[in-house]
Amino acid sequence: MTQFLVDQSFWNLFPKAQLGVILLRNYQSQEESSEEIKNLLKESHLLAEKHLTAANFADNEVIQTYRKAFQQFKTKKGVRSSIEALLKRVSNGKQIPSINPLVDIYNAASLRFALPVGAEDLDSFVGDLRLTITDGGDSFYLIGDDTNSPTLPNELCYKDNVGAVCRCLNWRDGERTMITANTKNAFLVIELLDPNKADQLLEALDFIEEHTKLQLDAEIEKYVLTQDNACMDL
User: Fold this and answer.
1) Percent of the chain whose pLDDT exceeds 90
2) Which pLDDT score, from 0 to 100, does residue 115 have?
3) pLDDT per residue over 2-11, tens digit each?
4) What span, in angstroms and rounded, lies between the C-alpha atoms of 100 and 106?
5) By the number of CB atoms within 10 A of the CB, which of 48, 55, 133, 233 ranks highest?
């Protein structure tokens, strides 16, 4: 049985963090989202504006939370959390494009609850999945790129026995484990670094559960990992 293991090196940086995990099994994957899912994404785009109350984008609470977090480990210059990338588009008046049903649903959750959410093809993992500070050199091919971009020493990443799965928390997914139209089983993770937002994590998990059941006919398992409960079976 393979596992998802959150290494102590992560908890040393973020001792009060929580990781929400959803396992989707036997879901009905499709290339294009239904109108219901597309409308859900558009509605979430509007709701995301409540997280952008500061006159200066960088001064918004959620942006500060994840920028400060990314200063705690090694990154490439200019790396930002996925939630910042989404909210930046909202701030600039740009719509979040529809990609595929599952991605649209978790992007909608990310926008509504101001939390970074990522997803991988569960069947693509080789060995255990770990969230850890790495020594560097883990193989990583960015989606759409055929050049290896290995991890940096002291970078925080998700990795398995083959290489990096997702770099710098939810910053960039790799080609090898990405969600595709052929994915049947998926691993979703939500990174909560502000313990005062724990209710938002639970709401985001419930939101994804509701809409993946309704729209994708998925079998759902939900978990919340903490420093005292830092591993789970996949």
Assistant:
1) 82
2) 97
3) 999 999 999 9
4) 10
5) 48
